[in-house]
Amino acid sequence: MVYREDEDLVFLGQMESADLNDLVLCLIHDRDGAERMTGELVKSELYKKHQPDHHQYWQEIAAEIQCFGANTFATMFRSGKGVLYREVLTDVCSRVKVKFNKDASVNDIENELLMKILSDSLKKMSEEELRQLAGTMGLANSETMTPEILLGTFQLAFVAGGFMSYQLALTVANAVANFLFGRGLALAGNITLSRGLAVLAGPIGLILTGIWTAVDIAGPAYRVTIPAVVLVATLRRKWQSQQEKKTETAN
Fold this sequence. Notes:
Elements: H1 21-28, H2 45-50, H3 58-68, H4 72-77, H5 85-95, H6 106-122, H7 127-136, H8 147-160, H9 162-181, H10 195-198, H11 201-218, H12 222-250
Helix pairs in contact: 1-12, 5-6, 6-8, 6-11, 6-12, 8-9, 9-11, 9-12
């Protein structure tokens, strides 16, 4: 397993070890909690020496994502190198039927993936749940809220970036973790998800059930790459939010 220089994963090297806990768990454990037989990360000397100080071997973590996203035989011919994160991301989007511009930035493609999950989830929410979500977000006319209006609000939040974008991504990732591992993210322990956003967990779980049924047939690698991509997208938005905060403080 060899890390390929990847501009879309290099930010992981600036994350704290605690931030990477959930991503590492996703990469090394199956849904039932058993260690993945197909993974290489736990065999890494840096992992054995430093875990759980994940920051010390962030490149090995990135390499694991790249290799799970690659065809097994192709990886062998690349001398253990996988594919760049962009290819992993677009493959996941194609698998879960996300419409995206292939020339768009990785950040924008991740937004489309998150929006697809949120959009499908809103369609499964009751009128009461929609009103609760709208009210918690401080939206006017919450009594007459529709999935389309909420979706537009989410889109604006992702375009604007910042903390709200991170919180929405965290909501999706937290639901993924609950679905896969029966518990929420360690990341979510530091940020209390509002009751309004929490109501999305059930509908997102239904969406994930449908996705999982399809990818289980397609192949085991998707059981890693789909949650890994959602987690990477969430970490990227946390990192971006931190960078914006630092800039504001400096000014």
